[in-house]
Amino acid sequence: MASIGMDSDGHGDGYAVRLDWPVARHGGVRHEFTQFTTSLRKALRRAVGTQRYWATGPARPLAVTVVPIGRGEYAAHGRECAALTCPTMAPLLGMDAIRVDGLALPPGA
Questions:
Q1: Using one digit for the tens of pLDDT, what is the confidence trace for 57-83?
Q2: Of 33, 8, 10, the residue nearest 96 (C-alpha)
Q3: How far apart are CA 89 and CA 100, in angstroms?
Q4: pTM for the whole structure
Q5: Alpha helix (H) ranges present in the chain?
Q6: Could you give the CA distance from residue 15 to residue 79 in angstroms, rounded to a whole number?
Q7: For position 55, what pLDDT does the model report?
Q8: pLDDT-based confidence at 27, cuts 50/70/90?
């Protein structure tokens, strides 16, 4: 089953850099997508540059990853999103995104 913004093979029509941010007041994680491109190679380079940019700052993302995402979904996605149904890097790793998101849930959630 394809995720939102994905085709039947689990891929969108492009890639974005996903930044996961800690939320101290809630103890959770929020994410945002940046730098949409149709090239996986460009997305990977952009992720490295983004990681370097944030590495020296006082606030750092928990993770900087590349995710397959549809152009429309990228354009419509808001900042500080906490939804577990948003694209992850799981399809690029050959994993089931639903299973991966399920492992991220706290026990009993």
A1: 888 998 899 999 999 999 888 888 887
A2: 10
A3: 10
A4: 0.72
A5: 40-55, 71-76, 97-104
A6: 17
A7: 92
A8: confident
Angstrom distance (rounded) from CA 71 to CA 34: 12
For the four alpha carbons of 74, 19, 51 and 95, in that order, the dihedral sign comes to negative
Closest CA to 28 of 60, 64, 62: 62
pLDDT of residue 98: 45
State the burial class of residue 64 (Cβ atoms within 10 Å of its Cβ: 0-12, 13-18, 19+). Answer: buried
- What is the phi-psi region of residue 27: left when phi exceeds 0, alpha when psi lies from -120 to 50, beta otherwise? left
State the pLDDT at residue 105: 36
Residue with the two structure tokens 């750092």: 60
